């Protein structure tokens, strides 16, 4: 379970980074806004960042609970 959450967290961070790079290369950075509005994530960048943060916290908790 711990390895799966780490792999999913890394994948989500890479997806967020890829989204930022793609928007930068096509001069569409402002199209990513808003990332977070009305108390929920918005768009591909908002959701990938939210999932990445949640999975990172979860993998940290699982790592600490195994000791």
Give the ordered list of helices and strands: HEEH
Q: What's the alpha carbon Rg, rounded to whole Å?
A: 14 Å
Span from first to last CA?
15 Å
Q: Strands across the major sheet, in which order?
A: 1-2
Overall number of strands: 2
The fraction of residues in strands falls at: 5-15%
Major sheet:
2 strands, antiparallel
Which oligomeric form is depicted?
single chain
Q: Helix count, per DSSP? A: 2
Tertiary shape: elongated
Can you give me a brief rundown of this structure?
This protein has 2 helices and 2 strands; from the N terminus they run H-E-E-H.
Description:
The chain has 67 residues and is mainly α. The chain has one domain (2-65). Helix content is 70%, strand content 6%. The protein has helices at residues 2-25, 43-65; strands spanning 36-37, 40-41. It has a two-stranded antiparallel ribbon. The two termini are 15 Å apart.
What brief labels describe this structure?
transmembrane helix, 2 strands, membrane, mainly alpha, elongated, 70% helix, single chain, two-stranded antiparallel sheet, transmembrane, 2 helices, 67 residues
């Amino acid at each position: 379970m711990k390895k799966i959450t780490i792999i999913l967290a890394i994948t989500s961070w890479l997806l967020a980074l890829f989204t930022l790079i793609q928007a930068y290369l096509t001069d569409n950075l402002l199209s990513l806004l808003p990332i977070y509005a009305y108390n929920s994530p918005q768009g591909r960048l908002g959701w990938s960042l939210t999932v990445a943060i949640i999975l990172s916290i979860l993998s940290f908790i699982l790592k600490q609970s195994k000791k």
